[in-house]
Design a protein that fits this description.
The chain is of the alpha/beta class and 279 residues long. It is 43% helix and 18% strand. It is built from 11 helices and 10 strands. The strands form 2 sheets. Strands 3-2-4-1-5 form a 5-stranded parallel sheet, sandwiched between helices.
């Protein structure tokens, strides 16, 4: 291997999910950039792999990214891993990946489990369109801004949350979004994997003080489209009259008003003619 950054997915709970390609990347690379070297060491030990590691995480990424890039430019290869799942997704690894692209360094994927996609797949929630929202900020202003920005989001929304913050997050989301369907997915790929289908308000009440263990994925129903106020047949007739005043025939005006209102052309035309006869 030479001058390659391998973005490698690692198990999110079950060691059996580490792919043969991931094992090969670990064995063949020059060094590993790990979010927590202690966690990655346990993984490597399980597969009897020995490899030099450096720590790469949120608090040292600005310092370490240039160092890693320099080593790659010197011909070394590096495996980037997070504690669990795919690195560079809601993860500081994205900075390193971007910097590698900027320096013309090859970035190669070795895909593995991803918590949000796995949770969505087993949740039974609408998956045709969805947004990944990551973790809500603990900063009050940023948290409020984030929540307010998704109040009218029509797509299914996916959040990550830690067990000790679950109660506050459910309360804040329920207060802003109202009562919607939610799937609480926890302990993915582990013995106690669980999908809890309920509503946001019910969940906020039941888990106000926590009570759930393990890493948690929240999947929340998107906002329902706002219902437009239906036009009455009298209002449709008024629209048709405006079309007539602009030069349309009564039949054409009734047709346009029907398309605009969703009402039957015949009903609109009949009322128009009735008013004409009475006039």
């Amino acid at each position: 291997m030479s001058a390659v950054l391998y973005v490698v997915g690692t198990p999110i709970g079950n060691l059996g999910d580490l792919s043969p390609r991931a094992v090969e990347a670990f064995e063949s690379c020059d060094f590993i950039a790990a979010e927590d070297t202690r966690v990655t060491l346990k993984l490597l030990n399980s597969f009897e792999i020995k490899k030099p590691m450096i720590s790469y995480h949120e608090h040292n990424r600005f310092e370490m990214s240039p160092r890693i890039v320099a080593r790659l430019l010197n011909g070394e290869s590096c495996v980037l891993v997070t504690d669990a799942g795919m690195p560079a997704i809601s993860d500081p690894g994205e900075d390193l990946v971007r910097m590698c692209h900027e320096h013309g360094i090859k970035v190669e994927s070795v895909p593995g489990p991803t918590a949000f996609a796995t949770a969505l797949a087993i949740s039974g929630m609408p998956s045709g369109r969805f947004t990944f929202e990551g973790f809500l900020s603990v900063n009050k202003a940023s948290r409020t801004e984030h929540i307010q920005s998704i109040v009218k989001e029509p797509r299914t929304m996916i959040f990550y949350e830690a067990p000790h913050k679950l109660g506050a997050t459910l309360r804040d989301l329920a207060a802003a979004l109202g009562d919607r369907e939610i799937a609480i997915v926890r302990e993915l790929t582990k013995i106690h994997e669980e999908v809890i289908r309920t509503t946001l308000c019910a969940a906020a009440e039941k888990y106000a003080n926590g009570g759930l263990k393990g890493e948690i994925v929240l999947i929340i129903e998107g906002a329902k489209p706002e219902e437009k106020e239906k036009m009455t047949v009298e209002q449709a007739v008024e629209e048709a009259k405006r079309f007539v005043s602009n030069g349309d025939s009564a039949s054409e005006a009734a047709k346009k008003a029907a398309k605009l209102s969703g009402l039957k052309k015949g009903d609109i035309y009949k009322l128009m003619q009735g008013e004409k006869d009475n006039g």
